[in-house]
Queue: 4 jobs
Job 1
Amino acid sequence: MTAVIAATHLSKWYGNVLGLNDVSLEIEAGITGLLGPNGAGKSTFMKLITGQMKPNIGQVTVRGRKSWNSPVLFRDIGFCPENDVFYEEMTGWEFVTGLLRFYGYSASEIKERAAKALDIVELTKDKDRLIRGYSRGMRQRVKFAQAIAHDPEIVILDEPLSGLDPLGKRKLIKLIKEFKSEGRTVLVSSHVLPEIEALTSEIVLVHQGKILAQGDIRFIRELIESHPHMISVRSSDPRALAARFVGDRSIQKMSFGADGRTLVVETHKRDDFFGCLTGVVLEGGIEIEEISSPDDNLQAVFEYLVGK
Amino acid sequence: MMNTHRAVREVFGFFLCLGRKTGKTRVFALLGLVPVALAVVVRVVLHGRTGDMAAVFTEILMVFFLQFYIVILALFYGTSVVAEEVEGRTLSYLITRPIAKPAIVLGKYAAYSLLMFLMVAVSLSLSFFIMNAGRLADARLYLTYLSYLGVLGLGILAYTAFFSFLGTVLKKAILVGLVFGFGWENVIQYFPGSTQKFSVVHYLKSLLPYRPMGGGGGGVALLLFRLEPTSPAIAVLMLAVIAGVFLALACWVFRTKEYLYEE
Amino acid sequence: MATIREKGYSHWDGKLAERRYPWWPITRVGIRLAFRKKAFKFVFAGAFMPSFIALVGLYISERLEDFKAIVRSNETLINVSPEYFKTFFTSNGLLFLIILVLSFAGSGLIADDLKHNSLQLYFSRPLRKKDYLLGKMSVVFFFVLILTAVPGLVLFIFKMIFAGSFKFFLEYPWLPLSILGYSALLSVFFAFYVLLLSASSKNTRYATILVFATYIFSNVLFGILMSIFHKPALALFSIPANLQQAGAFLYGQKLPFAFPAVWSFVLLAGICALSAVVLNRKTRSVEVIK
């Protein structure tokens, strides 16, 4: 698949501070989560993609075209910035329609698109109120509306869920997922791991300006050989289960859960362990209720990679 | 991508709509009512003395317009063309649209220039015609009025272009602008020879439709003090060149410079 | 037993201790922030030019013999007296430089806090409104006093050093009080003035224009009205004229305008009172959205 967004040896300095450190990566269609703590370089990367900043070294292209000083690209890009800033004297309606004017639409098309975008973010009722009087969540939603009103193929969202209540977040997550099914490219950043996990399994992990990993969460996890996998097994008799496992050399560590029914195992050889578990199940005598991987998530992956 | 002409028009429309709503515009418009109030007061005090009133307007109120009002307006709105977007962090909304960056500068410049011109025109018209209410049948009055309006309009265009350029280049453009507008522009008139020509106000004063009578009145000294006027044609040309050059520079700088938000 | 700690921003539950000078950290930070701006350092240094020139004048007045070769006719080229100090302190040049420095250093004092919603951060500390305002005002006090009281007293001391005697002090023992009194007047007035205009907008650029333009406009208005009506009392419209009138009174010199100096004091006090009312309303921890 051709990359929609491609960065090649991309580096960016802010004076003496390195914002992005020799980043090379390709982003394809679908939803890609850009994950990292505050100051990792996520916003810097997004600003470079959207042509708001010039790379110091390297280049970033969108559909093969350099993004710096290429306004033609923005016909197909929608950007939702992180900052909570607006033209405060405008109403939500004026804000969205005003920015739609820059796409060359007719007056009736502008109205139609604005109405649709505000309807999607559920701001139709409040569209004629001044943005100054909006709540934090409403401000975030109107920002999202201006990013999608022109139906862009590529949507860049910098911390789009910030400031939203749980219900608002669920709705926006659902909406973003719909973009994927429409074949669009969405790059969404967040420092909140569960948000990214809810959106996508394709992630790019950023830390201190560097890309730590890119790809499916689970494949990344598989690649982290230095850290043992954690597997949690809930059963009727965890201690008896532990007694059966204790001789197995694939297991490095075992502990019991606080609920008294869970056995947590750490192993470097997942396949060997599952083979052993299967044997225990076949032998019978212990009822296995649930098997899960507590560290098969973004938080654990990220923590392993940054060495915390 | 929209062609540049249309883009400029759309940016113009966007900021004209936005600009006229802000509280600051209301404050500046109110400031423009000061000469109107003065005109009413003077008319009451100097009732019947039409010659005196014409002189008062020309010699005194024009000082307010030429050396204060349009400078303050142009300084604020001119620096706002870019600085406002950077300080307010709304620049992202504009430069991530399919419009050429210079169109943003040109459109905003045009919108703010029109806003300022309207404020000045209302203020000038009211104060001028109140002061000259006894001479409304005189056709030359309207020529004088149009001359004043033209001078102030050209002043707005030239100053705003210069301050827009400052706003694209400097972080603290307003302070450099204050030093230029109220320091340099006032002090330069004391310099001999061609030094005066290194100011915008020199060319504006050269276009004023008034020259002091023998001996000069008290107020004339304020505006035309030591003025060695340039010919009107050259003055208009220079003002157009100043506006054009600084606007072009502002567009070029805005296109090539990277604007980082202060954290 | 382990407890879950909320990692978000939360109000401190501890006992709030009284500081002796709760306004001081605000002042310190305000001054530091002003000096961070490169251009400000240049302008601030330039603002000392009048003081330096006055010092040179003082030196010349004591070294007239050395300059006799240059000064052919007039033995008393510069007569250093309270008039000399009053001229220096009330000069349009010095006042212009003060307002320029304050446009740089003072216009964002409250405007920035309003813009970034920082007031609630201030008032969630053991800080009263008057401490906050005093802290902000002290930034203005610092800059005005360093441009007026400090050079004024230094000039006074150098006069005696260059003269080699205390004669000047014995002749005018009240002069240091005049210097301090007028400096205090300028500091207090400009503090209220700058904060009033800084509190009127969240936009620092606009506040800068307001600080400068209001000052200049008042003088322009006075000039216009004076040209029309020729009444000295019209000087009440001009901020610098009122400061000059008050200054002349405090130095015991001839008033520049023919009206009682008390009118100028009342007007300046009125502006300070208006500022106090506005500041009291504007500086609250909760923003009321209309």
Job 2
Amino acid sequence: MSGRFAFPIGDELRRTRAVAWKDISAERRSKTNFNAVVFLASLMLVMFGFALGPDAEALRSAAAGVLWLTILFSGVLAFNRSYQLELEGDSLETLLLYPGDRWPILLGKLAANLAFVLMVEVIVVPMAAVLYNVAIWHVLPPLLAVLALGTIGFVTLGTFYAAMASRVRAREVLLPLLLFPMLVPLLVASVGATTALLAGNAMGDAGSWIRVLVVFDAIFFVASMLAFEYVIEV
Amino acid sequence: MTTSLERPPSPPLAARAIAIPREPRWIGILGAVGAIAFVGAQALGVLTSPPDRDMGDLQKIMYVHVPAAWNAFIAFFIVACASIKVLLTNDERADLLAAAAAEVGAVLTALTLILGSIWGRPTWGVWWTWDARLTSTAVLLVIFVGYLTLREFAEEPERRMRWSAAVGVIGALNVPIVYMSVRWWRTLHQVQSSPATVDPHYVIGLRANAIAFLLLLVFFIGRRYHLSRVEVAIAAAAEGRALYDGEGESYADA
């Protein structure tokens, strides 16, 4: 194994960028997955509205939870796809044949998936604000930080688990089965922070939840980077 | 269905009987001792303890619920350690041990949750409450059910070994994080029962049951581990048989 985080890591970062750019270009040119995921997310927001509404107050108090569940349930569809193209083209082995560490492959795919989910959020978050009648302008900067931190943790574990789930028979079932139990702390913290922010953050709760998100992201980012070479080579 | 027309088996290959690993004798003995200890400890717990002031005889559930929870944690600790060993040394037997411990741990965790639920209904008035310890135990259960599902789906042994080791380590890493985050989220569970927090009348029953459960835990993990080794041996023998038949074809063609 060659799991050294040696400096200078200029080569690794170049390879990370190459993998990320390859994945982003493939998605940008077809857009099939992106369009489907955005449509599904919008649909979920509307369906949650029917399930919880029409009382405006009930909708507003559920908004943070509904938003995060929508992001998780629609975003999870992106991760298997990021390995699927390579598996279909039999090019994963080729990618692994290039010399060097494995973690740049994960980091590149992670960056591409992060861009994907953040793009979905650019459409879904304002839509949720409109449908559930919550004001987000006055808390926009901290809300963007919460969205970014929650999404980083989600995408890190999602990309890591998809490296395994995408290569078995029941990949569509296995990925959420492995991923969602792991995301419980992230869901609790993201919804906690978002709820606190939307309610004006009078108690300063958002800060504590943001710290939980930072710790969660850091631990699982490092753990996934270290564990990736064990799971991708077999 | 051998007929005289078939080719004679070549001796060295035909002589290759399935070498089934023998189960160490201590596992069976431990099972018998554990079963007796379990019955004895239950009897001891029920006989020595007076009805609880608030809960009455409902308190007796503690003698199964609490030891089951402790031993589930021991089982998951074994999963984590064995998984780390797999990642470091690629040891196939550590992989089988982790799988055995995960199965037993999942059963004990489910037992903990079900008994807690039965106890909670008359005590708290609800079958389930979104309390920190309950919720994190449930999350622990689903994390390890995910681990076992992955083992089921990953068909190649090498893959199953490495993947489940990585998932086991990362899942174990999440346990304290889940616990802390859910605790900040909400708390209702009473302080957990241990010899330090329960009335002296209940200590001996609790201790005895914890030991009985530990014996059974080791027995179940030991037997499951042994069964996995038998499965591996049979799979290897079947592979050898297939290779032998393949050789037979070419022998017949020639």
Job 3
Amino acid sequence: MIPLSYYLLLSGILFVCGVLGFLIKRNIITIFMSIELMLNGVNLSFVAFAAHWHALSGQVFVFFVMVVAAAEAAVGLAIIIAVYRTRETLNVDQVNLLKL
Amino acid sequence: MTPNPYLWLVPILPLAGAAINGFFGRRSSKKAITAVALAFCGAAFCLALLIASEFSSASAPYYFNLAHWLRSGSFQVDFSFYLDQLSLVMLLVVTGVGFLIHIYSVGYMWDDDGYYRFMSYMNLFMFFMLTLVLAKDYLVMFIGWEGVGLSSYLLIGYWFTKDSAAAAGKKAFIVNRIGDCGFLIALFLMIKHFHSLDFTKVFEQVNAWPTETAGAGLLTAIGLLLMVGAAGKSAQIPLYVWLPDAMEGPTPVSALIHAATMVTAGVYMVARSSAIFERAPMAMVVVAIIGTLTALFAATIGIAQTDIKKVLAYSTISQLGYMFMACGVGAFSAGIFHLMTHAFFKGLLFLAAGSVIHGIGGEQDMRKMGGLRQYMPWTFLTMTIATFAIAGFPPFAGFFSKDEILWKAYSSEYGSWVFWLIGVITAFITSFYMFRLWFLTFFGDYRGTAAQGDAHGHDDHSHGHGHGGPHESPWVMLGPLVVLAFLSLIGGWIGIGGRFEHFLAPVFQSGSAAELAHETAGEAAGTGTETLLMLISVSAAFLGLFLAWTLYFRRPQLPARIAASLGGLYQAVAHKYYIDELYNVLFVKPLIDGSTEILWHGVDQNVIDATVDNSASAAREVSDTVRHMQSGNLRSYAGWVAAGGAVVIAYMIWMGVWVR
Amino acid sequence: MLHFILFLFFGAICVAGAVNLLVQSHPINSALSLIAVMASLAAEYLLLGAEFVAAVQVIVYAGAIMVLFVITIMLLNAGKEERSKGSRVAILLGVPGVLIGGVLVAWTLLYRSNMQAPVPIGALKGDPADIARLLFHNFLLPFEVTSVLILIAIMGAVVLAIRPEAVARGARKDG
């Protein structure tokens, strides 16, 4: 019998790691991966709550989150490719002119 | 109190004329403008004659209520008009003399570019003046009061491109305003204690008030404050300084506003408030003293002036002093009588002076005139009649009214022989300087240049005739002169036998019972005294004529020698006792300096402008600082988001914890 | 007991993978550790009884999205991260901020709420049938909308990533 809070703690740790990755890493792709990590953490907390409150909608919502994450990953990576073509770099600090 | 439905038309007709000329005059022909102006003014005059013909003392006073105006609790003011004997006299004087001067100005101002503007302003003035004299309420009178001040400003500064004219207009208005302050405070006191400004209601309550013989009290305060207002409007000491400067305006303006009608508004107001004054002896004494002193003071200045219009201006101030002296000694009807005759002969004097000026191409300096009687016979004749009238020679109009005042100054219960003596001395001086003017202008050799008839470019009147040499004025200007001369001749006869006084008696009721008793007593004691005093004043007039004849006709080199030997005294008188300079140092300059330093630099620039400027630069500084947040760097954005998110989470947890 | 051990085991793998993602300098290593995280998360879902979600997690997340990431890394020839001037704000403000936020949440969860209720193993059995019932009855509209969303994403990705000369070549070929 695991207390709900443990699941939520795990979810929080994953989320914090995701944010830290976003702040610390310099490679755009790695930053994207940190975003995916954040979304995963959130998914875990959804499922945990669904189990706690016996509401299946929590798991259905995870489904939607995944769909959105997939769409976002596709579009985001396409953007990265476009940015790479013009900037020749994947370093996010050098992509700071707010226009291509 | 019987209603009279024509009363409201009398002021409105000139207003309509002013509006039509004002809005449409610019594009109309001069004939059309003239027709409109004269038609409406003349209609007002005819209506006044009609009202006068239907006037009967038995059904007086008449009134007419035009519209509601203010309602505030128990205090109410309506646009209502009032006609009693006093208003009737004023009405006839204002419309009659006003109409004549309108006709005169047609000729005088014909060549001016702003002709329509002039006619519009003149009609506007008539409207306000008629509102003033026909008002049933102090507040409606105040509308007229302010309005005539406005018209005076507009007309004095009529040639507004001239700096001196614009400044004179400003001076007139501002000095008037100082007087109006006093008037307003008097009105406030009336509202506070009598809860009304309507004449009938106020005087009803005043009549129930005890006489304030102690010299202090509400009625004394009101009376003194009303006198302040009258001093401003009617150019008495200390607020007379605007009237000489007002001569910058065209001569018909000087005639109408600054001789016949506007400046008499103060006298009318004091006469109207006779009930208040009679119960405040101290205020009456002050009025008399101010009037007497002003009469003497202005007369002394008049003897050294060289500009023909300035002489007449100081003469006006002096004669107004006589009127106030009359009111101050309780002889209100004598004051009004003199007001009426003064309107005739002073109006005539100004118009004739205008004719002279017009005839010699704009020159106003008497030292450059002379011998004009052969060039301008009609002007000479009418001006002679006016001069004899103002000097107080019988049987001209001025003699009767001035003599009445001097007698009352001596014999009235508020009067004293001091007033009478100063009055006689002033009469002597008046006669002297008026005949000085007469001799200098019309006798001797012509001292002006022959080319003066051409485009002289004089500031009053850029008026190129091309005639060369002085000439008579056209009949449109001479006609009113003749009419006024006729009135100056016979105008005084209405006062013979006390008929005028008896006519006005119901207006000055409360005092006149005592007056009449005193007068019969006085008469019984001194018909002899009255005749003696009359002889003394007539001989004073002859003395003045003789002195002027000696100095300016027989021995014309004598005045210069006398002036040189008097030295500083003469200089002081010629420079109007430096009063304008004194006011400038005492009041004007500190005000302007204070206003510049404190209000302009201090408040406007350093506070108001600085607030606006500084708030703008503060906004710029703030945005300069905040600008650095938008660096384009993705990670810094993320950093801010994370920090902000942490703050929000902390806040929510804290709220949750606290609530629980 | 077994439940707890399993939970800890897979939890540890998650955390280790997450930390490894932060620590590694080459993106491909980060990608691989992320895959490990997702796999162990799938196991966690199974522990909670959400079998359908676990399966979808492996198929979609680990199997499709991460593959996409790896392909992109390969395509762009991403190398080790270079040193570059970072953002001071991010390090000074953001990191403490997120850490503090995390600590606060953790503290709240552990000590201040009713979140101590135990969750048994396989607590809520997420049958595909049940989930499907929910998905196609209550959540039909969002479901359809997400399909449109995916369509748009595909089109967007193509438009963004296509080479200009590829467009020109396509135009020339047709015209």
Job 4
Amino acid sequence: MTILDALGLDFEYVPQRPTLRSVSLRIECGSMAAIIGANGCGKSTLIRLLGGLLQPKKGGVLYRGVPLSERNRRHFARQLAYVPQATSRAFPFTSLEVVLTGRTPHISPFRLENKTDVRHAMEALEVVAMSHVAHRRITELSGGERQLVSVARALAQQPECILLDEPSSSLDLRHRAGLIRTLTNLRNRNGLTVVMVTHDLALLDPCFDRVFALRGGTVAASGSPAEVLRDSVLAETYDDPHVRTGRVDGHLCVWSEAQA
Amino acid sequence: MITSSAPAGRNGETLSAERRLIRSVLLMLLVLTLCTVASLAAGYERINIFSLPHDEIGRSVFFRLRLPRVVMAAIIGASLAAVGAALQAIFRNPLAEPLTLGVSGGGALGASLAISLGLGARVAGTPIVFLAAFAGAAVSVSIVYRIARTGAVAASGSLLLAGIVVNLIANAGVLTIQYVSDPTRSLQILRWLIGSLDVIGFSLIWQMLLFLIPGWIVLLLLARDLQLLAVDEETAASLGVDVQRCERVVYLVSSLLVGVTVAVGGSIGFVGLIVPHVARLLFGQDVRFVLPCSLLLGAAFLMLADALGRSVLGQTELPVGAVTGILGGPFFLWLMKRQQHYATL
């Protein structure tokens, strides 16, 4: 069953300079999909459109068959969560306070969070192994820790679909793999649908079901990781003839040769 | 399960958020009551409350002058502090306040224009000055916002810079108006610019409350959205906040509140800056706490500042704007030094 259906999306930030051109893609319920591509190819724009944070110039996004524009934003936030690339740290909120904002869609407008909400928030922090920073201020956390707190906030929404925009860009080796493992577990256990913009190509196989390769604002290739993560496809996607792929102990490795 | 290895929240995590909010508001109401009593007692003319029933002059001074003045300080302080808390949240900038964002300056320009055109012969008497100040404040907030938001997000630096420049332009405008106006009106503008909370009777206060109370209510209703915006704008949008609508409503309401208070009391600085920070020191960062507590604390703060201004120099009184500046400026510098996370901005 399809959960997200993008139909011919056109988008431009500046008139006459299209960021996305007739992008169509379909995400299956309970699947894990990755969006890859070179810097500035429109990945973040695409995931924002999928989350309804931007309105397309042409085309539309259906969530379970209903256009995003017709959905109540607050109710929709119980179904779909979005993790931005970076978050503000103007004020020294504690991690728990940040994660608790994820409970908002479940709390009626004139109430504050109750004990159950605090429990959900703490559990979400535990899922990403960040419960030890619950009472620390986000201004004192490292970039990677803040990213995981942001993921915990999205999980506290208890969504059925989560969109992540480069959630692992500041994470170390262990936490990158750990995040994918966490998301895979949630998919297997709760049927969570995952859509993730990422540059961690080596982590996509075999956890991810589908990879969409963007190039210049259009979908250049899509398919299973094995189909997309090939020398020829990646060389074109990243416009880089030095891209190489290989397998070590059955694990996919992708690199770009530094020496010409 | 809550493991509090790190220092737990100042207020103890055992109380539910709603109970903590009620407790905080009650505490602030207590502070407000104490400050009201203190400010009613302060002043050149000593008034004994218990002799009021048989002291006609004392009664007249108390009900026609002292009480209205204290109430005036309270409603202006509450408005400025609440607007400060809301602007800080929506711009995600702890240095935002009506003065630094040029809202007060714009309001002052609008009001001066109205006075110089003779639209308010008795400066405080007519709501036309309110409307002019409101329009001035609204124009400057929209200019500042447009300049600061050239990219996808409003940048802190350009925001404050734009605010300061708009303020300078507005000040220059006020000076020009003052210069070309005839001497009586020019003097009116000058006296109004210094700012005073002097008021006789309650009629002006009722007129102001007609604008202020709806503004307070709207800001309080937006506290939750503002909390989400203070944490992160994109996240707030993904959680169902209509960011643009919320921003527009806050600008409009801020302009209204600041416009009306500026039109009556002149531009009084620092209240919108200090009070929300004190509320944060007391109750934490959560805007749902900071906003209502700032409203009450702002009232208490300006009442005290005015009481101080009335009593410290004997028969002459210090304008309240000077008191808030003298108290507030150093306090704010101390706060900045104490809390490094504000100093980085």
